[in-house]
Records
---
Amino acid sequence: MVVKRGQNLTGLRENNSYAILQRLQKKKCTACELAEELSISTAAVSIIMSELIEGGYVISNAVKRQGKTGRPQTEYSVNPNFGCVAAISLADKSVKIGLADMCGKLFSRANIDDIDEFDSSVFYETVIKLKDLLGKHCENIPLFGIEMAIPGKIEKETGEIIRSYQFNAVLKEDKNYIKNLFQKHFGVPVKLNNDLFLSLIGELEQGGSFDEMNNVLLVHVGVGLGSAMVFNGVPYRGNRGLAGEIGLINVYENGETKPLDTVSSLLSIRKYINTAYGENYTYDEIFGLYSNGDERVVERVCHTAKVLGNVIKDLNEVLDLDGIVINGGGVKFGEKYLEIIRSEVKRSNDVKIAFSCILDDAELIGAARRGVERAIARRFGQ
């Protein structure tokens, strides 16, 4: 443990407690294992563990014996019920609300679907649904914080929304409307974060999608397009947390230069099909037309996959990735859609390309994980 010059014993104890809880978030450990891994004396670990157990942060588990004759040792783990956090995703025309325990596990959920516009009524309905979940499942468990996944450009340190077209209706008069509303109703810290960054955290947390890959591009094909990156096993966010705006890359189509988002996003596909047919098909109806082999829909979807694949190919030329993972509603177009993207990318480099293993839940899982990390950090003065 690195101790800052002038740091008092209380601060050191809090730092060590925080480090222990971080480690216990990942796996159960004995006091000896914690002392060895964190370079803290076993005596100090014993004192801290007693305090953490008394405070309700940690619970002791079954005895672990070293060998047949070794001295029995107690394993410790985070007490999942010493508090909870709320994870909220506001993206792709829906709201997902989840409650997570202090191990980051989601245990209760609610949704608001088919949202035409994110106006104040949607946010008040979200407040009501969250209060309902807390009343049903957390009557005696304190809420420590709210983590929100927001599409658009979000400043990584402050959580300030720099730009998010979905929320123009509520942000034009007060850019902190969302944060202030939830702080007013729940009285806990509220942090806004980019939805694709939290989706990336969820993918890393859950495992599977990124197995044996250290340099990965996550591409979200939803109502809008976005991406997030992992370099050398670490999420990359850029200087201000704004990296990943793949939808703003210009492409050439029908003699025009236009943003990729206006070609390959689900919103752009829907607009194209509805204009072509003079209809007002929903996203689900368009997926159905595609599955049933509608010639015009299939042709358009395949074209957008080819354009997206070409952009990913160019990015891979620059970044030299281990793999590319696709998530969002676009995965409903299935293996043929993925194969078109794959064939474009592989024209320059044979890189692994796959759909996400956890599909629509990634950003909620990521929000839960970040919310728990932030809550524990605040409890111990970090």
---
Amino acid sequence: MTAQEEREGLHETLEILVDAELMSAILAAREEIARGEVHTTDEVLTAFRERGQRSA
């Protein structure tokens, strides 16, 4: 990783950290994960396929 890439990564991280709405969403998602409120990849893909078939 170059110094420029490292600076860009730090800048992006700071943009996330100062975005209160985004941080709130991240924290809410982490709480959902901790409670086990998650879906497998297969469940998500199946749901997308089913939605696609209903809207066609």
---
Amino acid sequence: MALVYATKAGNWSDTTVWNTGALPGSGDDVFASGWAVTINQNISARSLNTYASGSASAGGGFTNAGGYTVSVTNGYNGGTTTCLTLGALGCSVTGDSTGGPTGGAIGINVASSLVGTVTYVGNATANGTASYGLQNLGTATVNMTGNATGSNNTTGTGVNNASTGTINMTGNAYGGTGNGAHGVNNGAGGIVNVTGTATGGGFSNAYGVNNANTGTATINGIAIAGSAAPGAVNVSTGTMRVTRAVASTGSSISIAGVTGSVVGGLTVVKELEFGTGGQVPVSGFVKFDNSTAIKAQVRRENNTNVNLIDTASGGYPANSDVRYGVTNGSGTGTMRVPLPNQTQAGILVDNTVGTAANLTTADIVSAVQSALPRFVHAATEQSVGDQLAATFSAS
């Protein structure tokens, strides 16, 4: 492992750019050292950095302008400036990204000029004031796998969707402890889709996911209140959809999992889970989803939970599910239902009526006599034994 830094602006592939006179290797910590370095080939390194270290100065940055694959094992670390800018369609980037500690420093920045899709695998974390682990400045689509974590400082956000682009994130979003330090921020009219859990932070407005404007934020998972803030908040007139809203779990605090701040916005949840102290999981202007079964887990006074299901939405077991031996989400059925052909005709059974014949005494006698014609002679005998003998022996 070596510390390698740029000594002038230029392409990554130019050996004269580097203090060592050779290209950085996969185990090297690489510093822009105040210069603009263009990545013009697939690369791997231990880390890319824009802070000062040893003989390397702070500042500068790296730009992936050709859709190349970039991979690091110890992060893209924005010191005083943006560490890595993605400026071309098809970029594929692997490694954690950190913005800060200097205000405005960004780990990875997707340029406003980029149109198309980029792929990012790694965790995005903010460490400074107004810094971002990952920022999407334009209309690009970023497919991200990893977690996003807000800063301990003001407005330091893990992932910031600054314009009308799209971020599809598979991972969890955690609010920080600074004022406005969100895990994920959808700042304008863009789209954010999070498949995972959004957890509120340690400051009253440090949300797991913040939908700040007219855009759309969808959480395919849980939005859970943190120690001081909701898991997800729809601040303005945009749209927010959440699978499950979970209230604060501590018995001494009451914070909603999901908040809809204004009546002009659309904030929708599918499921609710009340807190252990009975805390309500939503606040403000929040509606239930109308396309699926609505479920809520509420807290009873005896401190047990009970699940409520909206039967009008079809979220209850089908009638057949209570039959003996049939397993459904609630358990196994125990009711034994006879078949229609085993039930007297006209008698209600299951969702129909019985079809078995109505037999009278005369019907039974007639049927027996038809099967055993000699039975008609039995009535003249004096004993049961004599009657049976007559039945089977008479001509």
